[in-house]
């Protein structure tokens, strides 16, 4: 059992952010948030803790004054933030990080991406690579991550193993692709693709959950995108999805102009791109749609109707010149939106970087007079405020993954997926104090609001001191 004592920030919805200058959180040995008291004064901490430990409800949960409770007291410049949710990334593409920016999507796939993914046929290479990938992703703060694997079953099992053993909450999918790739990197038939997908689902379900909570690693059905899947494969994936109505699905949609026109050519009977997935029963609650840069009005309405979510990947959208997603518009319509690093279309596995690029995307859109909205009182056409940006990275992402009742913010009964963010002051130990980011430090009179803003806009992995998933520390440089 652990008690955290320190400032806290989280969101309740896209426009409501809560700051507490000093909170006390009790985390059960199962990683559940048992109690929270916000805005405590510093001279009443001990007294408040004693009251909480003697509270009848908390005692029923196993808390007592004489119990074995670890106290974690945050230092100056530190605060608790919900764990980040990365709703879209590609584990086999990590060796390509920070290269390939000269291409647009279709050439980028052919010239750098498919060759990198093909290497995963070597399962030993997969184990070594994926250990490194998960370790690095966790260091950037995503406590939950939606991973695309390669086409290979064994390699993708290795990815699920690594998430499981590192203690990361994850959705792991084997890519489905039976056409429009290279001769040596394509599945031989729809049947082969489906059988391997079923085998992966079965395998991930055997990974044991934590002692008393639900599994951390989930399978996710992963057609790469409509172009790479024959009608027969999409049909089979649709029936697989209907056999598993709660299972998550991830794919790409409306990323780039050439991709959209090729999709229309391949599926002339579909009303539009979103309609292709809908036709095959793949657009539903729990579907995570990567990019969504150029959705038409009809598509936006359909996505909302089906209760699918959108993974906004602004770093990738800029890097391979795909476009800009109208996140404000989607949120105004009540569509669930989270952030995705989309490595290696995006060049960094950093959600903080993605937050910064999501902000820039909204600012560019706000400077574009052609964007008009019937929801003028909403977020469309405006720069996204701090509350929205933090929401996208945390609770918004959780809702895209249908995990909003479990994680995403600090609420009694939820699992404690959290970061200890650190913005050290001037001076301090070591190189620039704490994690050593020279670009950001707190000033004497900073409020918590200012500190959070500094973290979001000047921070990187060096400002993420500790990473907790379900109460267990899984990464970070803090002792
Ligand atoms: Zn992607």
The CATH class of the largest domain: Alpha Beta
Q: How many domain modules? A: 2
**How many DSSP H or I helices?**
15
Provide mean pLDDT, rounded: 94
| Rounded radius of gyration (Å) | 22 Å
Q: What is the helix content?
A: 25-40%
- What distance lies between the first and last C-alpha atoms, to the nearest angstrom? 18 Å
Bound molecules: zinc ion
Low-confidence segments: none
The major β-sheet equals: 9 strands, parallel
Beta strand %? 15-25%
- Overall number of strands: 17
The CATH architecture category of the largest domain equals Alpha-Beta Barrel
Question: Structural class given helices, strands, pairing?
Answer: alpha/beta
Backbone shape: globular
Q: What is the third-level CATH name, the topology of the largest domain?
A: TIM Barrel
- CATH H-level superfamily title of the largest domain: Metal-dependent hydrolases
Function: Catalyzes the hydrolytic deamination of guanine, producing xanthine and ammonia.
InterPro entries: Amidohydro-rel, Guanine_deaminase, Metal-dep_hydrolase_composite, Metal_Hydrolase, Metallo-dep_hydrolases
Cofactor: Zn(2+)
Pathway: Purine metabolism; guanine degradation; xanthine from guanine: step 1/1
């Amino acid at each position: 059992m652990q008690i955290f004592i320190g400032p806290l920030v989280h969101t309740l919805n896209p426009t409501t952010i809560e700051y507490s200058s000093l909170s006390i959180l009790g985390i059960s040995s199962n990683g559940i948030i048992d109690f929270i008291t916000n805005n405590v004064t510093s001279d009443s901490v001990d007294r408040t803790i004693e009251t909480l430990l003697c509270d009848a409800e908390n005692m029923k949960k196993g808390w007592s004054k004489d119990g074995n409770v670890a106290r974690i007291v945050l230092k100056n410049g530190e605060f608790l933030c919900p764990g980040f949710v990365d709703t879209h990334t590609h584990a086999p593409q990590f060796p390509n990080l920070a290269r390939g920016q000269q291409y647009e999507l279709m050439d980028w796939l052919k010239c750098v991406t498919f060759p990198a993914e093909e290497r995963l046929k070597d399962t030993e290479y997969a184990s070594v690579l994926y250990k490194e990938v998960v370790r690095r992703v966790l260091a950037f703060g995503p406590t939950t991550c939606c991973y695309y694997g390669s086409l290979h079953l064994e390699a993708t099992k290795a990815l699920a193993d690594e998430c499981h053993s590192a203690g990361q909450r994850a959705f792991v999918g084997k890519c489905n692709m039976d056409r429009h790739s290279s001769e040596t990197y394509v599945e031989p038939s729809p049947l082969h693709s489906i059988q391997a997908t079923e085998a992966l689902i079965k395998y991930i379900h055997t990974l044991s959950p934590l002692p008393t909570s639900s599994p951390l690693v989930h399978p996710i059905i992963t057609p790469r995108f409509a172009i790479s899947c024959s009608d027969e494969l999409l049909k089979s994936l649709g029936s697989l999805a209907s056999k598993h109505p709660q299972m998550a699905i991830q794919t790409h949609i409306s990323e780039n102009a050439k991709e959209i026109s090729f999709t229309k050519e391949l599926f002339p009977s579909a009303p539009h791109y979103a309609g292709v997935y809908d036709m095959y029963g793949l657009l539903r609650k729990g579907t995570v749609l990567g990019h969504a840069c150029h959705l038409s009005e009809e598509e936006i309405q359909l996505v909302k109707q089906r209760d699918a979510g959108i993974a906004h990947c602004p770093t990738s959208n800029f890097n391979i010149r795909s476009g800009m997603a109208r996140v404000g518009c989607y949120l105004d319509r009540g569509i669930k939106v989270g952030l995705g690093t989309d490595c290696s279309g995006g060049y960094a596995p950093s959600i903080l970087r993605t937050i910064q690029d999501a902000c820039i995307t909204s600012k560019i859109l706000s400077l574009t007079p052609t964007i008009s909205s019937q929801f003028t009182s909403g977020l469309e056409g405006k720069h996204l405020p701090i509350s929205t940006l933090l929401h996208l990275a945390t609770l918004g992402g959780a809702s895209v993954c249908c995990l909003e009742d479990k994680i995403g913010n600090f609420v009694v009964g939820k699992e404690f997926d959290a970061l200890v963010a650190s913005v050290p002051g001037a001076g301090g130990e070591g190189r620039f104090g704490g994690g050593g980011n020279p670009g950001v430090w707190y000033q004497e009179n900073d409020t918590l609001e200012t500190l959070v803003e500094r973290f979001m806009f000047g921070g990187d992995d060096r400002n993420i001191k500790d990473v907790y998933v379900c109460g267990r520390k899984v990464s970070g440089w803090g002792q």
